[in-house]
Amino acid sequence: MAESPVRRTGGRSAQVRATVLNAGLAELVDVGFHALSLEGIAKRAGVNKTTLYRRWGTREALMLDAVRERAFTKVPIPDTGTLRDDLVELVRAAIANLQTPEVQAMVRVGISLAPHESSVATMVSSFWTERLAVDGVIVERAIDRGEIAPVDPGSVIEAVLGPPYFRLLITGRPVTDDFLVATVDLVLSGLRS
Amino acid sequence: MAESPVRRTGGRSAQVRATVLNAGLAELVDVGFHALSLEGIAKRAGVNKTTLYRRWGTREALMLDAVRERAFTKVPIPDTGTLRDDLVELVRAAIANLQTPEVQAMVRVGISLAPHESSVATMVSSFWTERLAVDGVIVERAIDRGEIAPVDPGSVIEAVLGPPYFRLLITGRPVTDDFLVATVDLVLSGLRS
After folding, report:
1. Comparing C-alpha atoms, which of B166, B139, B163, B142 is closest to residue B153?
2. What residues does the HTH tetR-type domain cover (chains A, B) (predicted)?
């Protein structure tokens, strides 16, 4: 990679980061987690591998950064003013994101390897601890508005994401938009009764 | 394996079947799905491999039989007289079963390989099509008793199993008995409101 004065600016650095993270996800889809390496990702991104070793250290750290970034971009936290609309938007975006080849590959890797590789287990649990807290803001705002009684925000997120994840990864039944909306409505009716 | 007159009776045949299915699950935990073979299972079970080829044909058919049998034995369909108690018993048994090393290994194999191997995808979908129908009887009886309005029974089963599966396989948060009961109660409140 050619050195240039621009390289040190935030813009250039952010661009390199985005290129590397996208290369990580694309490489995972192509070669699988077993064969995934910082060297292979560097080659794909057209970046010197020492940059990756210096910045991320391990492939697990890089992939965690990649899925966090993807979720941050593709699954923003809605603020429509009602809990129902916020949850419907969140679930729609989360499930659309899960259905991309890159994210689906990451999730399936996490599920199959977490029991055997502690670095993968740590990656998965770091992602979800943060993500449930971030998503939970929707529920906290609804509690503050008096829409629902106080409840563990993370559990509400798990209640609306659990059934579509279960369908997509386990039973294989079709995940339609009607199903997503019905799941949110069932949880909301439960919370309000 | 020595031939004997007893071999042809149902009792002996059922015993061989149980030995082979248990050997299949134990072998999966030990060697992983990649290295799993009818030959290895036969050796472990102390049964001639031609018996396995004749009876099951493929390792996928044998493993499907093994998880069906395990679920049939360990997750019986309760009939307590109320939907709440039936669902709580079902979810407790299903999650206890999922937490055994054998079943957890099968589920993780299904999730990681189903997108790439159609024989695995067929195995998973056969299992769940049958299992949701079997479990759904609980919901059908509740509808007949007038406990809840008509609803797709499979969706109710997915609504109560989805969140604990999500915790166990995805977020890694603790699956306590309180959480299982709260999940059932949330779904029931939703169905009744």
Report:
1. B139
2. 14-74
Q: Can you read off the two tokens belonging to residue A70? A: 């993807």
Q: What is the CATH number of domain B7-62?
A: 1.10.10.60
Q: Are A166 and B166 in contact (CB under 8 A)?
A: yes
Q: Which of A145, A157, A152, A151 is nearest to A184 (CA)?
A: A157
Buried (b) or exposed (e) across A166-188, using 16+ Cβ within 10 A? bbbbbbbbebeeebbebbbebbb
In this model, does residue A183 exceed pLDDT 80?
Answer: yes
> Is A75-191 the same fold as A7-62?
no
Q: Where are the domains of chain B?
A: 7-62, 75-191
For residue B100, pLDDT over 70 is answered with yes
Scan for tokens 């079970």, then name that residue.
Answer: B45
With the C-alpha atoms ordered A10, A13, A14, A15, is the resulting torsion angle positive or negative?
Answer: positive
Select the residue from A171, A173, A184, A193 to test the B interface by mutation, using most B Cβ atoms within 10 A: A171
Q: Is the pLDDT of residue A1 over 70?
A: no
**Banded model confidence at residue B130, pLDDT cuts 50, 70, 90:** very high
Residues of A in contact with B108 (CB under 8 A): 111-112, 115
| Residue B5: predicted pLDDT | 46
Taking residues A22-37, what's their average pLDDT? 95
CB-closest option in A124, A128, A190 to B190 = A190
Q: Which CATH number fits domain B75-191: 3.60.20.10, 1.10.10.60, 1.10.357.10, 3.40.50.10680?
A: 1.10.357.10
Residues B124-134, mean pLDDT to the nearest whole number: 95
Q: What is the pLDDT of residue B1?
A: 46
**What ipTM is given for this predicted complex?**
0.88
